[in-house]
Design brief:
Helix content is 40%, strand content 15%. It contains 24 helices and 19 strands.
């Protein structure tokens, strides 16, 4: 796991500036604290900040092929590098290191531009073909590792994070109004957009090529993989036992591959089904006493320590936990936002950063997590919501059909379904119909958009023309309309929430802030493709989520873990920033009248009213809480990232 930076100039332009390249990679030292290298080669400069995990001594980058005609810098891990090395050696390729990085240059020699289809891993790659005078960028299938770029015609700059691009004096700093519209609907910008004008991000499962032997650079971007539900229910005739056995075998092999490391590997333990399944399989395979790490909360509404401890006792592992108390989120929230690099609407990334700090202080660089199972096997509430809403839409005037909403959100203190009138307003949207692509996320869109009411008129006008639903529609494959409802819902969730928010803002950015690599066994592409073929009964059986995974893990996990209703990971939102009726000093400087006026982003009177509502504890629903967090995070970015040094 590392950070990378690249400068590439067109033919005839001045060579890239080494000082600028070094300034870029210096901004990524949190991603690679073990050392950095910057190499110049005519039109191209490659830089790498290293977090040493595989081949500690020999894995320094850039790494080249035998005749130094192909060089690469890369952020991530190639989990099947052992098998690939054997295949490539048989083809005559000569290796100089034990690093997983080196397989990339030889795969490119062997298979060309689509070499990444052979990779099982999480990666952001920059490869320079010196002989052909071209640069290739590639990103993993689901977007675990980030990759951003900006181009002005004769120069391309690439980096793992936007802050490295902002190290270049020529790169302007300003929000992208359309991207903000996506953040305040979908929780993050949709690739290839970033939160900032002129800066793009390579989308998951895409690669980009640029020919350098030209006076002006032109980018060619292509997709090499996608979530595919076109064969959903192909296994409908198979019995549940055989499907569960195959699921467990695939997951076990994914864990086996992702345990490859030259440093100790730990695991996150949330107390839920997914992380418990991973921890159990790690303990089964590693042959050593597993080390697990957990988050707990002083507020019982968010706390899962009872279930975490049940699982830890069963495993007999070394376990530690950190408790998030009132005020802890406020203390780190500025850093959280600056690492996320786009506005946030939830505080949930903050405890994840605190947990990563604890992991690193405990001497670990690598942890396995349970992220991804909910997308594969329909674990989120959004899938249950959509099923219920479609059921209600068939007879919208029925009184008894709406009572099924009572089965949602048992873990919420202020559940929206406790008020029948509010629930009807939230779930019966006259603006969408059940086959609309955004139908499953309609309630989320409406709740998140509350922040738009607080924007200054000029910015609201600039955002008025943006319709995130159109951006979502542009993502859809040709066969989308022919898929079953649950498959459509899964695709939308995977393509809108996963990369930018769950794996980005809440995942990679928070763990790498403390130089910790997160690994995601459920997101092995073989598992994703297997899950895409499953019949619906294996995922959402009635309103029982992830049915097949529970079946596969019987006898391995305690019944208390298998049978508990999913409790999504959450954290206190606006309440995190107040002690009694006093706002934390760490955030008040961003929300007072002078700060709001200085940014010009929001309506001062409206923000003052919202802050007062939160101060007295009346912001108990999602819309107000997300508006508060969104305004605060945008103020932080404006003051400390865009206007700052």
């Amino acid at each position: 796991m590392c950070g990378i930076a690249v400068l590439a100039n067109a033919r005839g332009a001045a060579a890239p500036d080494r000082a600028e390249l070094r300034a870029m990679i210096a901004r990524l030292d949190h991603r690679g604290p073990d050392g950095s290298v910057a190499q110049m080669d005519g039109q191209v400069g490659l830089a790498h900040a290293r977090l040493s995990i595989i081949d500690i001594e020999g894995g320094w980058q850039p790494i080249a092929n035998e005749d130094d005609s192909v060089r690469v810098v890369f952020n991530g891990e190639i989990f099947n590098h052992v098998e690939l090395r054997d295949e490539l050696t048989r083809c005559g390729h000569v290796f100089r290191t034990r690093s997983d990085t080196e397989v990339i240059v030889h795969l490119y020699e062997e298979h060309g531009d689509r070499f990444m289809t052979h990779l099982n891993g999480q990666f952001a790659i920059a490869l320079h073909d010196r002989r052909r005078k071209r640069l290739l960028l590639a990103r993993d299938r689901v977007g675990i590792r980030p990759l951003f770029y900006t181009m002005n015609g004769s120069r391309l700059a690439v980096a793992s994070e936007i802050k490295a691009l902002f190290a270049l004096p020529s790169v302007e700093r300003r929000f992208d109004a359309r991207a903000l519209g996506e953040v305040f609907s979908l929780w993050s910008p949709l690739e290839p957009r970033s939160a900032f004008e002129g800066i793009s991000q390579l989308a998951p499962a895409h690669y980009l090529t640029v020919e350098l032997d030209a006076p002006q650079l032109e980018l060619q971007v292509q997709r090499y993989w996608d979530w595919d539900f076109s064969r959903a229910a192909i296994d409908v005739g198979r019995d549940d036992d055989s499907l569960a056995e195959e699921l467990r075998a695939l997951l076990t092999d994914s864990v086996r591959l992702q345990l490859r490391s030259d440093v100790p590997v730990g695991a996150y333990l949330s107390g839920g089904l997914d992380s418990s399944a991973i921890a159990a399989l790690v303990a089964e395979q590693s042959g050593q006493r597993l080390r697990t790490f957990s988050l707990t909360f002083a507020d019982a509404e968010f706390d899962e320590r009872e279930h975490q401890r049940v699982m830890s006792r069963q495993l007999g592992n070394a376990h530690s936990e950190i408790e998030v108390r009132a005020g802890d989120i406020a203390l780190v929230f500025r850093d959280v936002v600056l690492h996320a690099e786009h506005p946030l609407v939830r505080t949930a990334p903050a405890p994840m950063m605190l947990l990563a700090r604890h992991v690193r202080e405990s001497g670990y660089k690598v942890v396995l997590t349970g992220e991804g199972a909910d997308e594969l096997l329909a674990g989120y509430d959004v899938f249950k919501e959509a099923r219920i809403r479609r059921f209600m839409a068939r007879q919208p005037d029925s009184r008894w059909r709406g009572r099924i909403l009572d089965r949602l959100y048992p873990y919420l203190k202020h559940s929206p379904v406790r008020s029948p009138a509010f629930a009807a307003q939230l779930f019966r949207d006259p603006g969408s119909e059940p086959r609309d692509p955004c139908f499953p996320i309609g309630p989320r869109l409406r709740s998140t958009r509350r922040v738009l009411r607080f924007l200054a008129p000029e910015l609201r006008e600039r955002m008025a023309e943006t319709m995130p639903e159109h951006a979502v529609a542009a993502l859809l494959p040709a066969a989308f309309a022919d898929w079953r409802a649950l498959a459509r819902d899964q695709y939308i969730e995977a393509r809108t929430l996963m990369s930018g928010y769950l794996l980005g803002a809440q995942g990679d950015r928070m763990s790498m802030a403390h130089s910790v690599e997160g690994r995601y066994p459920f997101l092995d592409h073989r598992l994703i493709e297997f899950a895409g073929r499953l019949p619906e009964r294996c995922k959402l059986r009635g309103l029982r989520e992830k049915w097949l995974l529970k079946h596969a893990m019987r006898g391995v996990l305690p019944d208390t873990i298998l049978n508990r209703t999913k409790q999504p990971y959450r954290a206190p939102d606006s309440a995190s920033f107040f002690t009694g009726d006093t706002m934390a000093s760490e955030v008040s400087r961003y929300l007072d009248d002078d700060a709001i006026a200085a940014s010009g982003l929001f309506d001062r009177v409206a923000v003052r009213a919202l802050v007062e509502k939160c101060r007295v504890g009346r912001a108990i629903g999602f819309p107000d809480n997300m508006a508060f967090v969104g305004i605060l995070s945008m103020q932080i970015l404006q003051k400390d990232m865009l206007d700052g040094p």
